[in-house]
Amino acid sequence: MKIRWIGQSGYMIQTDTTKIMLDPYLSDVVNRIANRPRLVEAPIKPEEVHADAVICTHNHLDHLDVDAIENMNRDMLFITTEEGKEKLFTMGFSNVKSLKIGESILVGDMEITAVFAKHTVEAFGVVLKAEGTTLYFSGDTLYDEQLFEISKYHPDVAFICINGKLGNMNVEEAVRVAEAIGAKVNVPNHYGMFASNTEDPHKFTDKLQNGFIMEYNVEYCNEME
Q1: Is 16 in contact with 22 (CB distance < 8 Å)?
Q2: How many CB atoms neighbour CB 47 within 10 A?
Q3: pTM confidence score
Q4: Which terminus of the chain is more exposed, N or C, with fewer CB under 10 A?
Q5: Over 90: is that where the pLDDT of 211 sits?
Q6: CA 199, CA 135: separation in Å to the nearest integer?
C-alpha cells in the first residue's frame, strides 16, 4: 500500500488494484473566497486525478474543493456527506454516494467506513481497510470522547488533525484521542496549508512517548506518480 500526503487532510491511498483520493485540496479556492492563500503548491492538477473514488469528509472548501472538483473526471465515484452530495449535485455530478456514520462501502479492495466526527458542519472520519491494514483518518473534528470508540476498529495507523482552530482538536486533545484509540503509528495532519490555520507537528509527535506511538514518515508529495 502507498500512502501519499497531498496537503492539509488530503491523502492518496493506493493498492495494486485500487486508488482513493481523500479530501484533495488542489486549487486555491480558499484564497479566492476568503483571502487565505495556500502555502505549498498542489502536487497534482485536478484533471490529472485518476482514482476509483474521491472521498470528501465534509462540505468545506479545503475538503470539498469546488474549483478542483469542477475539473475532475465526472465518471469517478464521489463519497461524501448528505450536504456534500447536495453540493456536488448542484455542480452537475451524479456519481455520488453519501455515507452516514457507521455505514460502509466497498471500492475495489478497500472497505471504507464513515465514523464519528464532530465539526461545524455535517462531517465524518474514515476507517479504511485494505491489504490487512486498517487506517483511520479523523478528517476535521473537535475533541469528543466518542472519538475513543474508534479503538474498536483496531487501526494500525491513525491520521489526526492537530491545528486547534476552526472546529478541530488542538495538540493536547489530539494526543488524548491518539492514546485512547491505540494505533501503533500516529500521523499529525491538517497543518501547513494556511498561515492562519496551522500548527507545529512536532508538538504532537514529541508528546507521544515510550515507543507506543511514533511518528509515521509520510512526507508531503511534490510529485504524484
Answers
A1: no
A2: 12
A3: 0.93
A4: C
A5: no
A6: 23
